[in-house]
Amino acid sequence: MTDINKDNYSEQELKSMSNDELARLGTELDGVTVAYRKKRFPIENDPAEERAAIQLNVWLILSILSGIGFLAVYLFWPWEYKGHGDEGLWTYTFYTPLLGLLAGLTLLFLGVFIVQYVKRMIPEEVSVQRRHDGPSDEVDRRTMTALLNDAWQTSTLGRRKAMQGLLAGGAIVAGLVIIAPLGGMVKNPWKRGELGYEGDGTLWTSGWTLQEKGVKLYLGRDTGAVAEPHETATGQHYTTEGISRLVRMRPEDLDAQAMETVFPLAEEDVNDGDRYDPRKDVYEHHMHSIHGPRNAVMLIRMRSSDAARVIERKGQEDFHYGDFYAYSKICTHIGCPTSLYEAQTHRILCPCHQSQFDALQYGKPVFGPAARALPQLPITVDEEGYLVAKDNFAEPLGPAFWERES
Ligand code: FES
């Protein structure tokens, strides 16, 4: 601890002291011993100092330019999805990498400036301080302010107007680089979409919504087949060989007590059995269906004796086909995939927070944080005996966010 008594200093005395005196007093009161201190540029108007300042400004300018580049790409670069063979695919492909690169450079250049500034402008100093406890009193507060003033002056930043402006600009642009992308998440969930739904299609719809446009949708089984580019007489095609990624299913393809995840497969994208054609480029459509965030559906086949015990939800008594029940796989808690089906108890389990839904009672939650039933997809078989969606889901999928009756 210091031997100097702070009570010896009246407010009047403190006011009369210069900044240098207060700064020195502050270090003494804090028990700080400055063992070594050397200004980076002791001679005034040293050309080396000006060169260093210019180099430092260059880092700030680079940071600002990268930040402006990021904002320009974010606002004006074509970002809407392009598939294989579509015009503009390459431009679209660079959208995300460019955003990452420019955001990284903005922060990197700003970071380099800070490190370089400390190394080249702030006086070199070795100080030792002993620790003391308790809150700061008036003397401490004033002397600390004086020390900060001293740091501001000796760092030379106080008299470098160009650098101050660039630093403020760099900080603002770096802040925008972080904040601007959040703007893309601001959407009006009640806005009417093209299907007449409330919403912009992201929360209210899924691949199964196509059913309402008159598109016939099969319950597609994922074979896991991977596409390769193929040369045929009609040019290059990007398809799987022999078997397509999504294939139609018949009831006999699933054993009793089994569960399978299925995805919407549009009539025009069917490429299996006797309809297989290596020139049909449907792989990308299949992958869109598989990756659609609300598309996955659990198709459950119960034993007939169990199906006879099922309690249907009011108004949804004909949503199942025989012993087959199709529930959305997206948990109504916060949207994890409810991937586990326990055939003995007929419980559907969500691994995220352990919610359980009863397949014998229209997917009603019976344990855990989920409060609403899993939406059920109305299904049937078509004239060829393939499982198809009879209609769209009757309610929004996923987390129980709003406007659901159960
Ligand atoms: S997301 Fe399913 S229990 Fe939380």
Mean pLDDT: 88
Major sheet strand order: 6-3-7-8-9
* Radius of gyration, whole Å: 34 Å
End-to-end C-alpha gap: 68 Å
Which consecutive residue ranges, at least 5 long each, have pLDDT under 50? none
- List of distinct ligands in this structure: FE2/S2 (inorganic) cluster
Describe the structure.
The chain has helices spanning 11-16, 19-29, 47-76, 89-93, 95-120, 138-154, 161-179, 283-291, 304-307; strands spanning 32-38, 124-129, 217-222, 228-232, 235-239, 246-247, 259-266, 297-301, 324-328, 340-342, 347-349, 356-358, 364-367, 379-381, 387-389. The strands form five sheets. A five-stranded antiparallel sheet has the order 6-3-7-8-9. A four-stranded antiparallel sheet has the order 10-11-12-13, with no helix packed on it. It has a two-stranded antiparallel sheet with strand order 1-2. Helix content is 31%, strand content 17%. Helix 3 (47-76) packs antiparallel against helix 5 (95-120), helix 3 (47-76) runs parallel beside helix 7 and helix 5 packs antiparallel against helix 7. Among the domains are: 47-129; 207-389, Rieske Iron-sulfur Protein (3-layer Sandwich). The radius of gyration is 34 Å and the shape is elongated. A hairpin with a 2-residue loop joins strand 4 (228-232) and strand 5 (235-239). The protein has 406 residues and is an alpha+beta fold. It is built from nine helices and 15 strands. Residues 331, 333-336, 350, 352-353, 355, 368-370 line the site of FE2/S2 (inorganic) cluster (FES). FE2/S2 (inorganic) cluster is lined by residues 331, 333-336, 350, 352-353, 355, 368-370. Its main location: membrane. It is found in: Cell membrane. The chain crosses the membrane at residues 58-77, 89-115, 166-186.
